[in-house]
Amino acid sequence: METRKLEKIRALVGEVSEEQLKYVDCFVGDGIGLFIPAVGPCLYAITRDHSHPAYSFVLTFDDKGNFQAKGKNITPAPGEVVAIDPGSLHHEVPGQEQSRYIAILISHTLHDREARQYDLAGKAYDFHRFFPGPELINLLKEFMTEHEAGLPGGEAVLAAVSIRITHSILRAAHGVNSSAPHISNRIEINRVVEYLHRRYGEKVTVDKMATVAAMSPSHFSRVFRKETGLSPMNYLIDLRLAKARRLLVSGETCVTSVALRCGFASHSHFTDTFRKRFGCPPSDVMTTVKAG
């Protein structure tokens, strides 16, 4: 990890090590960071009674999330956000299955500057739980896409999206969201996406996805492509490849094990698909990790 990126992460998270983040996808700008445990836990998050210098908003996607703070368990519902103040002691309680969540860390400076517009600066959250507005997921996706693209003007775009994310959270947390209804199709497709993130290592068919969405297979395929830009199976393949690459980067040394764990039928199928997507075989990633 680049020194500058690690410094930005530590400004938000605290004195975290690169080793503690080896299973985590990190998207970091100036004053905001998104952290997603991809193939294992964040080893800093499960450290007992740690805290962050930034505000932390943990958006959960399943019912497996469990945190401890002030001697009590906090178990958010799927889709709920837990708000954690800077300096508040807490830790994630690891379970048999890795909980799916995005930790959104917003610097004290950025948060309080924008909160003044709502007369909220300095108001404690104290582990308040709330449901985000329907726009938040798309804003997070936009931030991650821009972060990975590395295009000219990217820092300016990230700064703008960071402000929008901050306002989305402030409005939802303090009950000043608009009353615009959720779009039904988007909710159903999000349900399928969460299902795929839980079951990507298993045999999954379009028919099964359609059942989860409560749609016919043909209608589901059309709606899924409209919402995500990909066919259901291409989305699943991309997800499996992303999970596999994360395992390889984190130090996994058996290609066959990674292939089977991520839902590929064989070593050869995985290698061919990986090469088409990333331009190199999985073994090249392993070699780079060992050399680095």
From TrEMBL:
Provide the GO MF annotations for this entry: DNA-binding transcription factor activity; sequence-specific DNA binding
Q: Which UniProt keywords apply?
A: Activator, DNA-binding, Transcription, Transcription regulation
What range(s) does the HTH araC/xylS-type domain occupy?
Answer: 190-288
InterPro entries assigned to the protein according to its UniProt record, in alphabetical order: AraC_XylS_family_regulators, Homeodomain-like_sf, HTH-like, HTH_AraC, HTH_AraC-typ_CS, Tscrpt_reg_AraC-type_HTH
Q: Which PROSITE patterns match?
A: HTH_ARAC_FAMILY_1 (PS00041), HTH_ARAC_FAMILY_2 (PS01124)
Q: What is this protein called?
A: Helix-turn-helix transcriptional regulator, AraC family
Q: Name one Pfam family in it.
A: HTH_18
